[in-house]
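worker-03 picked up job from queue 'complexes'. Input manifest follows; two sequence lines, order preserved.
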Amino acid sequence: MRPGPLFRRVVNRSCPTVISNRTFQSSSLRSGNQRTTVTPYYDGNDFVRDRSQLIPRSLYHQPEHWTDEPEYPEIVPPRKTRAFVNYERHKEAEKVAAMPTVKEKMAHFAFGPPLVNPLKVYIARQAKLDIRRWYQIFQPYEIEGFPVKYDALPFYKHITRTAVVADQLPADYYAYIEEAELNDIVDKVRQTVINAILAEGRYYSKNLDQIPVEERVVVVQAQNVIDALVRAVNLAVGKDFPHLREMQQDTDTRCAAFWKRGGFLHDAQLKRRIYDKASGELMLQYIEEDNIFRNFRHELPLPEVLPRESCVPSAATEQAEGRQVGYNPTIYGFRPEKSIPHWIPGHWFGDPCEFSTLSLDVPKAWTRQLSGQDEAQAFESLACNAIMASFGRIVAQAMYLGFTFLNELSYPIVTQSIMTNGRDWMFATYQANTIALWKPDEENPFNNMCWLTQPVKLFDRVEGSEVIGFNDEVLRLFIKQYLKAPVTSTNSNLRPYIEKTERSYWKNEHSQTPFYHRPTRRDGKPRQPFKPEI
Amino acid sequence: MVHITRVLLGGAIRPKYHFRRKWRLYVEKQKLGGPVIPPSLLEKGVPIVNAAVEQKSLEKNIEQFFDWKPDHPMFIEEPKDGPEHPRYKEIPCRMFKEDTKLFEGVEQAQLLTKTVVISDAPPQWGLQEQLVDALRFPDEDERVRRYVMQSVRWHPSEDKLPRRSLYYGYVAPWYYGISIARANDLICQNLLRLTEMSYSGNSQILKRHLVKDALVNVDYEPAQPDDFRIVLSCNSNFMLTTTELLPPFAAKGQAQLTSQAELPSIYPLKPALNLEETNLYDWDTSYPFTEDCTFGFPHTIIVHHNAPDEWTLAQKKAKAIVHSHATLAALARRMFGKDVKELPQPLSVQCILADRGKHFTFYAYQLNTLDMASPDGIKNLVWVDTDHQTVKTGPEDDPEIVITEKPYRLFQLADQMEGLMGYQMYKEKNSRPRYKIRLLDSYNPAVMKKFLTLYATQLNMTHSNSAQLKEPREPRAVAV
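worker-03 finished. Artifact:
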C-alpha cells in the first residue's frame, strides 16, 4: 500500500506548472490592484481523452502527480456559444493585465500571436522587404470624427456607449470660479480677442493665398482667434493658476484609437469569424489626422463630474433617446481598412503629461458639409464629432495608462473638447466610465456621459473696424473650461496595470543605464562621468 | 547561392500582367459573340440603348446639367513666369528671399543695409537681465526640457523627411518624423508661451499682439544707373507687436558717431552678389499691418532658419540683420513717407534667429537712415548677441586662449541622432538600423533667460515669481 496521495493530478505535458483547481467562474476579471499569479491553462486540444497518458512512465509514480483531494480541470464552456467567447476574453484579459509594459500590451493587440514563420521573417530581413505588410491581418472599420452621412448620432452613441446631456455643461463642476472673478478675467481678455478678429483682414500673410476664401474664415481666423484667446488668458491669469504652466501643449497633432464594440446586428466579418458572432463584435479604429489644433495635457487627471455609480443607464433615458442601433458601420459610410491597430492621444508614449484636459478642434469639414444644413443637423454633426473626439482621445490615453478594452478603467477619466470655426463655438465635457465595450450592454453596468452646449456665436460679423454682436458668453465658457484645474494628488494608483510608471528622459537620471549603440573605451576604463556643459 | 526573389517568398507575381491578360481574353470573347440580348426583353419591346454611346453624349453635354465653376485655388492655373504674369516687370531686380545665402556674411549685409555692427548685447539688455532672475519659475528648466523632448521625440507628426544621400550607389529610403521646420516652430511657440506666462499679472503686456508669418516687402532704387534694383522680401515667422514704438537702443550722440565709422569693403564683389535676378517682384513697400491698425509697431521678430544646406554663423547673422532692417524700413516708409532719407526719429526692433530649433542668436537693430545711395553720413546700428566658447591650449605657464563665437545652443541629445534633416522616430520600411532619440544630454537655460530679457524691453517690472507661488484659492478635489 503506497502511503502517498490517492488521486492522480491532472497534468498537461506542455504546461509543467501546477494547474489551479479553481473553475472558470471563480477566475473572474480582477479589479483594482489585485493581481492573480496563476493562470488557468487550456491548450485548445479536446482530442486527448486521458491526460494521464501524457505523463512519461518514468515520472508516473512521482509524488507530485498525486494529490489527497481530487483536482478537476477547469470547465470549458462548449464552443460556438456566448459563454465560450466570454471565457476566451477573460483569459486574454488576464494575460494582458499581467504584461508589465505598455509596449507589450500594444504589441499584443496590434500584431496578435506570431503568425508569421520566423524563418521567413529572417529571409525577408536579408532581402530588405517590408514585413509589416504581412502583419496587417486586421480590418477594423475606420471611423472619422466628423460624420459623412446624416442621422449618425445614434451610431456614435452606440459605438462609444454614451448618454448625451444636451444644451448644458455640468453647473456644479464649473462652480469653482466666482462670477465676479470671471467677469474680471473677461474684461481683461476681451480687447485682445477683438483685436485678433479684426487682425484677420489687417495683415498680409504669405500663406494666405494658398487657402480658399471659404476655408480662410474657418482655418486662419479660427486659429488666430484660438491663439489669441489662449494667449490672453495666459497673460491675464497665468500665474494664479499654476496648472496652466504645468500643462504640455500639442499643436496640429493627431489622434488614433482602437477598440472593440459588441452588439452589432450583422456583418460579413462576423460570418467568417464564428466566435465573435455571438457577441456581435466589431473592431473599430478612430483616426483624426489634421483637425486637432490645440491639445492641453497634464500629469494628473481632472476630477470626476459624477460618481461612477450614478452613471448607470436607466430605461427611461434610453427610451427617450430612442433605440440604440447596432447597424453596420458601412451604412454610415465607414469601411473596413487593412491597418495595424494603434493608439495616439496627441503624443507618442514617454511624455509624463498623459491626461488630456482640453482639446480645441477646428473641423475642416465645417464649411464643406455644414453650409447647407439647418441648425439641428449642424448640432448633430458637431455632437458626433465632440463625442468621438473625446472618447477616442480617452481610449488612447487609457492605453498609455495601462487600461485596455479588456482591462476596465479603475476610475473615471474626464476630458473637455471644443469644436470651433472661430465664430461658432461648441463646448463639451466628457466623462468616460467604461471602455470595455466588447461586452453586451446588459453585462456592463456603466455608461459614458457627455455634456454638450449648442453652438454659440462669438460674434455676428465684422463691419469696418468694429466687431458687431460680440458675445461674452463664449469667453466665459472657454475660461471656465481652460482654468479647470486637475486634482492635486491622488490616493489611488493611476496606473494599476503597469509595473514601471516613471518616465524619465533626462540623462542624469540614467547615468547607470548603458546605451546600446554606445562605443566603449578601448582602454577598458569606465566612461567619464557626465559633465553638464553649462 | 540561391537568389532570394519574390517567387521564393510567395508574393504576388506580376498581378497586373495576369489581370490584363484575363481582361483581354474576356474582351475578345465579347467581340466575337457580342453582347447577347435576352429574347424576353425583345419580346416585351424594351428599348435597347448602347450605354457607351449614351455615356459619350452625356459627357459632351455635361455643362448643361451642372453649373460647376470651381473657385478653389487648386483649380486655378498658375500663371507662367513670363510677361503675362501679373507681377512681371520689364526691368529686372535682385531679390533677397527666405533662402538667400549671403556668401560674404555680415560684411555683405552691412553694405546692403548700411549698418554698423557691434558684437555685444545692447546695454539695456544687461540691466534687464538682472531683473529677470526674479521672474523665473522654480520649475522652468523642467518645462523647457519637456518642450525640447516634445519637439524632437514626442510629437506624433509624420512629415516626409528629405532623403539622406548616404553614399553613392545606395538609394536611401524615405523617413517620416518631425521635420526641422515643425520642431523649430514647436520650440519657439512653447518658449514664447512660457515667457508670457512668466510675465502674467503685468497689465502692460495685454497690449501686445502676436502675429504669424508677417511678410514685409521693401524696394530700393539703384544707387548708380548701371546698378540693379534691390527688393527685400522677408517673412518673419512670429512678430510680436505693441501699441507704442520701442525706445532707441543708442543715445543720440552715439548714433551720430556712426557717421565717422566706415563700412567694410568686399571689392571686387558687389553687395547684391547672391541676390537672385528676377522679373517677378512687387515694386512697392508693404508692411503687414494696415495704416489704421493701432497695435502694429514691431517689438520682436522671430525668424526661423530651416535650410537643409550648411550656413556659416556669419551668413545666419546676415540673414537676421536683413530681416530686421527690412521690417523697420517698411515701417519707416509707412510713418515718414516714401522718400524719407535720414529718419526724424530712430526706429528699433529686436530679433531672434531660431536655427533648427536648437541654436539661437539675438539681435537689436536701430534704423537711423534710409539713404542707401551714399555710403557716407549717419548709419544704422545692430547689436549682435552670441555665445562664446573659450578654449585653452598650450602649456600651463603660457596658455594660448582662443575665444570662438558660437550661437546659444539650447540642447544636446544624448543619442547620436542629430536633426539635420528632421527627427525620425521609428524605422520606416526596410530601413537600416538607426539610433532612436531617447535622452537629453545637456540643456542650456541661457536661451530661456534671453527670451525673458528681450520680452522685458519697454516694461516696468515690478513683480516676481521666484518667491513662494500663490496657493490656489480653493483646496482642489483630491479623490479620483
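worker-03 released lock.
The radius of gyration of chain B is 31 Å.
The longest strand of chain B covers residues 229-242.
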